[in-house]
Specification:
By secondary structure, the chain is an alpha/beta fold. It has three domains: 3-238, Glutamine Phosphoribosylpyrophosphate, subunit 1, domain 1 (4-Layer Sandwich); 247-439, Rossmann fold (3-Layer(aba) Sandwich); 451-596, 3-Layer(aba) Sandwich (Rossmann fold). 35% of the residues lie in helices and 23% in strands. An eight-stranded antiparallel sheet has the order 3-2-4-1-10-9-11-14, covered by helices on one side. A hairpin with a 2-residue loop joins strand 9 (180-184) and strand 10 (187-191). The protein is globular, with a radius of gyration of 25 Å. Bound molecules: fructose -6-phosphate.
């Protein structure tokens, strides 16, 4: 939800800021703006409705010159997407400018107060109050003023600010929304996400909640707390390949990221599997501690929640620990029964999802040990958790999660195997055998990519449809949910998912001639039951797509289109079937003329509740 960027140094700021916004655009793309301090310390600003490209096109005609600037790409919360509501915002005197990612919950009261003081607002946003507060409280130092301002704010923020009175200085603040800073020989940078800084440095400093930083023109960064105490920076080293955040010849990031899955999964496995054992130091607990875990809570949202559903089934099957899993926005307000014998798995690609963070903090306060499963180095979840399992998928730019999802499934399987072994429920021989099965998955996924024509053909059943149903059983009931979500979010076609057996308890009523129904039906222990469900929908005229195991002749009479799964162990079919469902969703979305990377109304990182 929104991306912020700041630069001060010896170079022209405009292009650096624009490049940063392009990298951050996945966070929001309804409008964008940039403000640069010119030679005579005047703030020059351009904002445009639409994607960063619109802003870039405008700047080509009328460039902004200056070596200190801030920028923003927006995902609207308060106020419609428009130029008027685009960030950054100037104060009344046009000497202070601020961009904000997050939400100012008490903005209405502050706005009333500031209006009474004579401040004039130019937007409908919550964020603009920050600029006017800085103006009203300015004490001669931007960062010191920002500290005082933040004491008056409620909500979440990553703020970047600059002013005419302190040319060459940018002040930033963070609470609840991600913000990284980087001192470099070519100037000092701040951004919502380290991918925006990757072209400039390999070492970045993620700020933690309650921290402030001053970026100076000589490229230095000073980090302070709310009371002004200077904090020793804790840089992290980025070892991601910068080129992984570029299209590299693919038509869109979704296609690229789907195609990267064999390598991404191999990378994760190579880092966690050695000599037939699972290496998860993050869970390092001796046997007694592992035996003492009596409950696991899995905290996640959206696609990550679907990975949690898979994790629950495997952990309960192999490690015999009861697992609670619910979307974090529900669990956050539920009575949870956590204590020091509880393990919390926080699954989140971005590591910044508001509810996932809030809920894992709640469990931690109750005594639970929190293990984060995330893709983003230095993300908030990673800095707060007791241990982190990085997905190592490389940057996921497309809003729809693909490679991170399959990596979450692999990470979940590793956790389940680790716990089963540690609790003495699975011997070394069986662990080695399961890991060997897991290690064959990247090749199976590569084979699916070679067969993606099957997904393209299957996509044709959605032509003219206004709704669809996705069904699966057992481990693959999560696959059905994920398939439906993927289709819905990028094609805007309604899709609903149910466990297959639940279909006859209501959803079957929607089925009519030509209604698209997708079944995930690999040869597993519930195969025969799912075939019966397929017969039921076929009898009512549905157009059926199946994701089925190679060579399964039994499924042939029940489906018009079949996406064949290369052989894997049954418990791994949610990983391989996910790839077909991603490909199919993309083909449907493309046929409907949708932008698969930037679906409407969605943002990659959802940092407000
Ligand atoms: C769907 C999707 C979202 C996210 C959800 C949680 O493709 O990407 O449903 O899974 O917003 O995000 P993370 O995993 O970053 O916590």
């Amino acid at each position: 939800m929104c991306g912020v960027m700041g630069y001060t140094g010896p170079k022209e700021a405009e292009q650096l800021l624009l490049d940063g916004l392009f990298a951050l655009e996945y966070r929001g793309y309804d409008s964008a703006g940039i403000a640069v301090l010119d030679e005579s310390a005047h703030i020059k600003m351009v904002k445009r409705l639409g994607k960063v490209q619109m802003l870039s096109d405008s700047l080509k005609k009328k460039p902004l010159h200056g070596t200190c600037g801030i920028a923003h790409t927006r995902w609207a919360t308060h106020g419609v997407p428009s130029e008027r509501n685009a960030h950054p915002f100037l104060d009344c005197s046009k000497r202070i400018v601020v961009a904000h990612n997050g939400i100012i919950e008490n903005y209405a009261d502050l706005k009333t107060e500031l209006r009474a003081q004579g401040h004039v607002f130019t937007s409908d946003t919550d964020s603009e109050v920050v600029t006017h507060l800085v103006e009203s409280m300015y004490d001669g130092s931007l960062v010191s003023t920002l500290r005082k301002v933040c004491m008056r704010l409620e909500g979440a923020w990553a703020l970047v600010a600059m002013c005419s009175m302190e040319p060459g200085t940018i002040a930033v603040a963070r609470k609840g929304s991600p913000l990284v800073v980087a001192p470099t020989p070519e100037g000092a940078f701040a951004a919502s996400d380290l991918t925006a800084l990757a072209p400039h440095t390999s070492d970045v400093i993620p700020l933690t909640d309650g921290q402030f930083a001053t970026l100076s023109q000589d490229g230095t960064v000073t980090i302070t707390t709310i009371d002004g105490t200077v904090v020793e920076p804790e840089p992290i080293h980025i070892d991601w390949d910068v080129s992984s955040a570029t299209l590299g010849g693919y038509p869109d990031f979704m296609k690229k990221e789907i195609s990267e899955q064999p390598q991404a999964l191999s990378r994760l496995l190579a880092s966690r599997v050695a000599s037939g054992t699972v290496e998860l130091d993050e869970l390092s607990m001796d046997g007694a501690a592992l035996l003492n875990i009596n409950r696991i809570y899995i905290v996640a949202c959206g696609t990550s929640y679907h990975a949690g559903l898979y994790a629950k089934k495997l952990i309960e099957r192999w490690a015999r620990i009861p697992v609670e899993v619910d979307v974090a926005s529900e669990m956050l307000y539920d009575e949870v029964l956590a204590d020091e014998h509880t393990l919390c798995l926080a699954i989140t690609q971005s590591g910044e999802t508001a509810e996932t963070l809030l809920c894992s903090r709640k469990l931690r306060r109750m005594g639970a040990k929190v293990i984060a499963i995330t893709n983003v180095l230095g993300s908030t979840v990673a800095t707060e958790a007791d241990g982190v399992i990085y997905l190592q998928s490389g940057p996921e730019v497309s809003v729809a999660s693909t490679k991170a999802y399959t990596a979450m499934l692999v990470a979940s399987a590793l956790v389940a195997l680790f716990l089963a072994h540690g609790r003495g429920l699975m011997g070394s021989g069986e662990i080695a055998q399961r890991l060997a099965e897991l290690e064959r998955v990247p090749a199976a996924v590569a084979e699916i990519l070679d067969r993606q024509g099957l997904a393209k053909e299957a996509a044709s059943v959605f032509e003219g449809a206004t709704s669809s149903l996705f069904l699966g059983r057992g481990l693959n009931s999560a696959s059905a949910r994920e398939g439906a979500l993927k289709l819905k979010e990028i094609s805007y076609l309604h899709a609903e998912a149910y466990p297959s057996g639940e279909m006859k308890h209501g959803p079957i009523a929607v089925i009519d001639k030509g209604y698209p129904v997708v079944f995930v039906v690999p040869q597993d222990d519930v195969h025969a039951k799912t075939l019966s469900n397929m017969a039921e929908v076929l009898a009512r005229g549905a157009d059926v797509v199946a994701v089925a195991s190679d060579g399964d002749a039994e499924v042939l009479p029940y489906a018009q289109h079949i996406m064949w799964l290369p052989p894997t162990a049954e418990w791994l079919t949610p990983i391989t079937s996910a790839v077909y469902l991603q490909l199919m969703a993309r083909y449907v979305a493309l046929s409907r003329g949708c932008n698969v990377d930037r679906p409407r109304n969605l943002a990659k990182s959802v940092t407000t509740e």
